[in-house]
Design brief:
Number of domains: 1
Structural class: mainly alpha
Oligomer: single chain
Number of helices: 8
Distance between the termini: 40 Å
Radius of gyration: 20 Å
Helix content: 55-70%
Largest sheet: none
């Protein structure tokens, strides 16, 4: 991760990611995946006309879904406690940064949940090719019913990890060099865990790969915008108080 992510936010650095080639490569690959319809090809490899053999696999359904989600919920609660009573690496962020990080996490979770609630896209295990009744449609066809239960896009399970990207952005834009160091490590951990959780749901037939990709984009964008906005608001209010 380039240290320029830690540049002072006195400039309008909300657009900083747009200057990174990796941003455009990642976005281009995500759009290309959607355009080529690769979701249906991947799910056809995993599924059968009778459904998805791994849907109820004990390790995937119980350990990697239910229990891992519980662990992350506990981590979410501990992270909120660190806002008020910082311990360890949390001390590398000031209270404003800790607040911004955790509100960003919460907003990411709420936005993903809200989008799922209004989505008419059904999960692959509801598709006709796998014994269901839904006709596979693009998740961008908002308001168009596919005949299934809907409420599948974006990926809620992966967001349990990817929402913590907000903490990553807070660390990478902090003044503390120590925060930048563990922020880079946390970036890989969060991205890796989110990808793993997405793969688990794909194997179970719950989400095609594009759902995980777009969940990552949503969480990354929400967290980044909120962290930048909160810092600019704080700096603006600080200047205003000094001028009074």
């Amino acid at each position: 991760m380039n240290s320029s992510f830690a540049a002072p936010l006195s400039a309008p650095t909300w657009y900083l990611p747009l200057q990174k080639p990796i941003f455009w490569w990642a976005l281009g690959l995500t759009l290309l995946w959607d355009a080529l319809g690769l979701d249906q090809w991947v799910m056809a490899v995993i599924g059968t006309p009778q459904g998805f053999p791994l849907r109820h696999h004990p390790f995937l359904a119980t350990v990697m879904h239910d229990r891992l989600r519980t662990v992350l919920l506990g981590f979410y609660g501990v992270a909120w406690l660190m806002v008020f009573w910082p311990r360890g690496v949390a001390r590398d962020l000031n209270r404003r940064q800790r607040w911004a990080a955790m509100v960003g996490v919460t907003l990411s979770l709420l936005i993903v949940s809200g989008l799922k609630r209004i989505s008419t896209t059904s999960c692959p295990w509801d598709w006709q090719a796998f014994g269901g009744v839904a006709e596979p449609l693009s998740h961008w066809t908002w308001g168009v019913l596919d005949g299934g239960t809907g409420h599948c896009f974006p990926g809620g399970h992966a967001s349990s990890a990817l929402a913590f990207l907000s903490i990553v952005w807070a660390a990478l834009t902090a003044e503390s060099h120590a925060a930048k160091r563990w922020g880079r490590k946390l970036l890989w951990a969060v991205a890796g865990l989110g990808l793993l959780m997405g793969v688990v749901q794909t194997l179970r037939g719950a989400h095609p790969p594009s759902h995980t990709l777009w969940t990552a984009w949503i969480c990354a964008a929400v967290g980044w915008v909120f962290v930048c906005a909160s810092r600019r608001w704080f700096e603006g209010s600080k200047v205003l108080r000094q001028s009074v």
